[in-house]
């Protein structure tokens, strides 16, 4: 069986982002907040590997520091989404009819609201913060996890081996634990990656609009917004945060696709 | 299928049920919007005037916007007026919300409609193509491109397009919309072209994942195997999947309509377009909450209306859904 390229590259990128997050948490070449007015817009040199920004701050240090925000936002939001969405999805598919109806109807209504829009409303009410972004995006991504998981579980419950397990006296709880979860987890991983993608993009977009992560916490989205006005003269400065945002989202997306390609037994190759 | 009167009744019942769900959705979401803008510390008047405002000024503002009444009667007034076409007035400028939204539809409507059509077409085509050419170089390149496209947030795409087409090539305006609007159709079209591309690109990269996943499912199906075994080559066999892939993508588009509107919020901000999205961002920044509330109500109504229409269309396209 051919190993999936997506899986390898995705895992590699994610490993790289985790690595620079850990590195950035313990050591950065410079203090990412220290300004140096004499040394603004410096080109990349051995002193400043990625150059300095409009206030003379070291870009590499800010990128390293910002990685933590991005990774945490992705991880926490997808954890919320999977725990909330997975549990309710399985519950809806295996419980009595009215529970299913209630969960499905409420999910159907809320799935119409994208994470970013809900986050905008919540930000309007509570003011901008990373916590607001993570929580709102986690829950709203969780809603689509409910919908997808419920359908997957309903399909799995119709499989002959589940019927066989039932005939041999397996309870619903046992069937879910033994058969459903085992077949469900690739789908959950794929959905976790998509939730992480949504969260990372939402955080950077809101920070770009000035409604996300607030200073002094570093954020790639805010870095991009603050350097955009110098785009014509110093395009490199804007491209660093843009590059890192895009690379991390690509990594997570590739990982999701790789998992699907690797673990979906119905896929012909 | 229209010859069978029983089937027709079923169709009608399904449409009616979908309409009922849509109305419930609008009602439920309007309550959510109403409540979420009232869980603030303090109230809307304090938010607007600040904590230093005199009690008299606060009382006057509360009286003007009915904020001294109970939440229930505020909600009923708001919805009642909205049904009669009165979306209230702005707390900042005092302008009528409804008429400002209508004047901004000139920008937002063409943007949304054109980019949905473009993105669905692109996604279905790309999804089928990348699936079919999975092992080959062209497929891998197309796949990689669509993945990278999906990884670029809308605002980055926008900044990139401005840099290339407006600054470097000087082909199109970097932002703004002619003050004469559609009376100068060519200028209006030119200023909407980049935002349109930007929105369609980010939208189709979401849709292409669904198109791809459904194409993969089709590739694994008996129908594909049968088509191959009667001698059709894989391209021809894949052509059968067009409707099979289109229906879930359309369904997702219906779910994505609010994402599209949110995308429009971002795109309008990046390109400085006078649309509903940039208005919403400005109102949130100004804490013009009665206006934010009414704008969101309109978004909610639009979202459920589009979902209703697309669901009915998909019911027609996909006969399996009704059986």
Radius of gyration of chain B: 24 Å
Could you say how many structural domains of chain A there are in total? 1
What structural class do the secondary elements of chain A suggest? mainly alpha
The biggest sheet of chain A amounts to: none
Tell the overall outline of chain B: globular
Give the overall pLDDT of chain A as a whole number: 81
Q: Summarize the main sheet of chain B.
A: none
Describe the structure using short key phrases.
heterodimer; A: 269 residues; mainly alpha; MetI-like fold; elongated; B: 323 residues; 76% helix
Question: What's the short story on this structure?
Answer:
The complex is a heterodimer of chains A (269) and B (323). Chain A has 269 residues and is mainly alpha-helical. Chain A is built from nine helices and no strands.
List the helices and strands and how they pair.
The complex is a heterodimer of chains A (269) and B (323).
Chain A: H1 5-26, H2 59-94, H3 97-110, H4 115-126, H5 130-157, H6 160-167, H7 172-208, H8 220-227, H9 235-263
Helix pairs in contact in A: 1-2, 1-9, 2-3, 2-5, 2-7, 2-9, 3-5, 4-5, 4-7, 5-7, 6-7, 7-8, 7-9, 8-9
Chain B: H1 5-36, H2 44-49, H3 55-64, H4 71-83, H5 97-132, H6 137-151, H7 154-168, H8 185-219, H9 222-229, H10 234-239, H11 241-270, H12 276-286, H13 289-317
